[in-house]
Structure formats: C-alpha cells, structure tokens
Design goal:
This protein is α+β, with helices and mostly antiparallel strands. The chain is built from 14 helices and 22 strands.
C-alpha cells in the first residue's frame, strides 16, 4: 500500500501556510540532491505552485560535490523549472572567519538564500525559501539542545516557519520520505559526509539515538509528542516572562534599570533575569555572574559583546557599550554648535537680561573666558569651584555626592578655558566664571 505522503503534505500546507503563501507566491527549494530535498521537489511539482531550485556546491568533497551539482541540474528538465547553482570556497571562508566547516557552510548558504529571496521579491510577488527538514531532524535537534543546555527554547525543535523560510516536511518521518521516494521511483544522491560520526548531528543519528532505543523503543515517538507539549508550555512561559518584564524593567535615557529588591522577590529569579539579559548578548554561562551582581558592591559589572550590566546601589543597570572613542573637542569663538557623543552643545553670546536657570544651560561671564575652549571627558584628579562655593572640590567627590552611577560618571564631560574647568557639563558651572552684576556679555552653552 502506497504511503499517502502527498495528501498529508497538502493538509499540512493548508494548516500552516495557506494564509501567507498564495497562488501569486514563488518558492525557491533548497536542494542538496539527497532524498529529503528530492521528495520535497517532487511533492511541490504535484501542486499548482511556481518554484525554482537552489543548489549550493561547497567544494568540500571533490568529485562527489560535482556529481551532486550535475544531478540537481538534471532536475531542471524533469520538473520543467530553473536550477540556480552557487559555488563556495568554504574552507577559505571558515579559516578567515575562524568557524567550523559546518557553521561556515550554513552561513554561506543562508546568506545566499537571503539574497535570492530579496532580489526576487516584489510588490506583487512574495518569495519563500523551502527547506526539506523533517521530523527526525527535529528529534535530533531537541536531543542536542538538551545536552547543550539551551533551556525551554531549545525544546520546541525546528520551527515550521521562520520569516520567509518554510519547512513543509516537518510533519513527516525520514522512513516515510524514503518509502515515498522508492514508491515513486525517484533517484537521489547520497552524501558520504552523512556517515561521518565526528559531526555531532550524525553521531546522534547513527549512534546515540539507536543506543537509547535499545532501552526505550519508542523514544522518537515520545519525543515528537513531548515537543508538541513543550511548544504549548513555551507559550505559557513567555506570557509569564513578558508580564514580569513589564513589572521590573524601567527604561531611562537609553538604559534598562531593574530594582534589585523587586527582582529578588521573584519566584524564579534566575529564569526571569536570564530572559531579560539574553536580549543584550549575555549567555547562559554569564547568568551566575549576573546573579552575583545582585549582592555585589556598587560599581561591579559584567559585559557582553554589546552591553554592560552594572550594580548601582539598589539597581542593576544595562547599558550599551560605548563605540565612540573620541575624548575631546576644540571649540573656537565663531563656532555655533559642536556635536559630541550622542549630544550637541549650542554656543551663543547673549545679554545679561536673557540669562536662564537650567542645569543644561551654562551662562558664563564672557570677559573671563579665553578661547579656544576644550570639551573633554572628565578624568580622575579634575577639580573645580562649584557654583556657590569658594573652595575647590574634586569632581569625583562632587559626582559621589550627586549619587551618580558608574555609567553616568563615564558620560560626564567638562568644558575648559585656559586649563581651568568652567563647566561640569549638564551639572554645574564653576563659581569663578559666574555672571555678576558687572557682567556685560554672556557666553551661553546649552547641551542637548
């Protein structure tokens, strides 16, 4: 009796893709030449959909790679469609980017696929990529994720859809696909690298899963059933996490601030904190360090590739790492505006009657100012005479008294005139340069 894979394929298609992939869509099928991708191509040929074939030659297996390419090109005639082939120097790419061959090949093919989709998508025509992942791939992926420790997100397996990538064979077992190929007299090619157990996925498929089956005969069926349960559990999990994020996270001036006491009152502190920091490049291995920050001294921090988590009194604060290394700017007398960091300073000469009281505006006696001015980052040892004080004060002590966090201190700039600090930008002017009743002209500096 023939397996009715085509009927199940169409049912699955209507359940998952009917709304997004209509008759105006065009599909690009990623075809290696193996049985899965050949069967997917054959199934698509029995629908009314328009499709083309994409093949990657990674030039890793010499004559075998060329054999695969020639075979896939022959499908153009059989299915009356176009076959696009791209050649890659995978070894050179892997060396240049310090990647494994498997990761390099994945990056190369998906970058190419993305370009193909973008180049062919128009206002009137949507394009999608079809890959031939099937149920056994999901089983292997979930098992690998369990051992990697990826958490609940790793237990839902491979998604049926990821943006423009569709995987319409995920419902089918490998045995069903092979049976369909034989029943329909389909030819395919075998990739010899699929037998290499030094590849993690192959080792799971060829050794680990068969060993588990010796003790749990229905392990694969059980895993597939559990994957469906885990998917629903993840929905509930995400609802809870999002609810807690809304309660905990406060966004202020491009920083994420979390009150430590409220976080520690959570029933699942580690889980909630990880789900927050994972969005900023922090890994599961850094969670222990992030938890220790909650009881650390003010000023302690950890970093990811893009962000930093800082302990500041009763808060943990997440900020982007600074990419701008310019530390000083020269301001001439005829300058009207200067840009620094992500801010700007407007420079004006005004009359005494126009003076404003605002920490972002410095009003200084022009007669006491010498140009050019120097705008630079504050550094240890700097001092000034804060407005209203007759004695000098170290800026570091001034910032401590103002209860600024470490990240806020790193954003502090000072304005100098003739090697004297005239303004702690955005905070306080120097008393020696203040406006008095004798002042005739005022230098106004406004930070925005």
């Amino acid at each position: 009796m023939k397996i009715n894979l085509l009927e199940n394929f169409l049912i699955n298609w209507n359940n998952h893709f009917k709304e997004i992939a209509n008759s105006n869509a065009h599909f690009f099928i990623a075809v290696s030449g193996g049985v899965d991708s050949v069967v997917l191509t054959d199934l698509m040929s029995k629908t009314s959909f328009s499709f083309s074939i994409l093949h990657c030659n990674f030039n890793l297996r010499n004559d075998e790679s060329k054999r695969d390419e020639i075979f896939v090109q022959s499908l153009a005639t059989k299915y009356n469609t176009t076959v696009l082939v791209e050649h890659f120097d995978t070894n050179s790419y892997a060396l240049e980017h310090k990647l494994s061959i498997q990761v390099a090949a994945r990056n190369l093919r998906y970058n190419w696929f993305k370009n193909i989709i973008e180049q062919n998508t128009t206002t009137n025509k949507k394009c999608f990529l079809l890959t031939a992942h099937q149920a056994d791939d999901t089983i292997e992926t979930v098992l690998m994720n369990i051992f990697r420790g990826t958490g609940l997100k790793g237990l839902h397996g491979i998604s049926m859809q990821n943006n423009y990538i569709l995987r319409p064979l995920l419902f089918a077992r490998r045995s069903e696909i092979e049976q369909y190929a034989k029943q329909n007299n389909l030819d395919w090619v075998e990739d010899s690298s699929n037998k290499k157990v030094d590849y993690t996925r192959n080792n799971f498929r060829l050794n680990i899963i068969p060993l588990i089956k010796e003790h749990f005969l229905t392990v694969e069926e059980n895993l597939l059933a559990n994957i469906e349960k885990w998917k629903e559990a993840e929905v509930i999990y995400n609802l809870y996490i999002n609810e807690q994020k809304q309660k905990l996270i406060e966004v202020k001036d491009n920083t994420i601030q979390i009150p430590i006491l409220k976080l520690q009152q959570q029933k699942a502190v580690k889980t909630v904190l990880y789900e927050i920091i994972a969005n900023y490049g922090f890994t599961a291995n850094q969670l222990k360090d992030a938890i220790e920050l909650l009881d650390a001294a003010t000023g302690k921090y950890i970093v990811s590739a893009t962000h930093r988590i800082l302990k500041n009194r009763k808060w943990v604060i997440i900020t982007p790492l600074k990419s701008n290394n310019i530390q000083h700017f020269i301001i001439e007398q005829d300058d009207k505006k200067i840009f620094f960091d992500s801010n700007s300073i407007e420079i004006k000469i005004i009359e005494n009657s126009e003076i404003q009281s605002n920490s972002n505006i410095a009003c200084l006696d022009l007669k006491k100012i010498s140009f050019p001015l120097l705008l630079r980052k504050y550094k240890q040892g700097d001092y000034f005479y804060p407005l209203g004080m007759s004695k000098k004060k170290k800026i570091s002590r001034f910032l401590i008294d103002a209860k600024l966090s470490l990240t806020q201190k790193e954003d502090i700039w000072v304005m100098e005139s003739n090697k004297k600090i005239i303004w702690l930008v955005g905070l306080r002017i120097d008393d020696r340069f203040k406006v008095t009743t004798q002042t005739k002209s005022i230098l106004q500096l406004q930070v925005k």
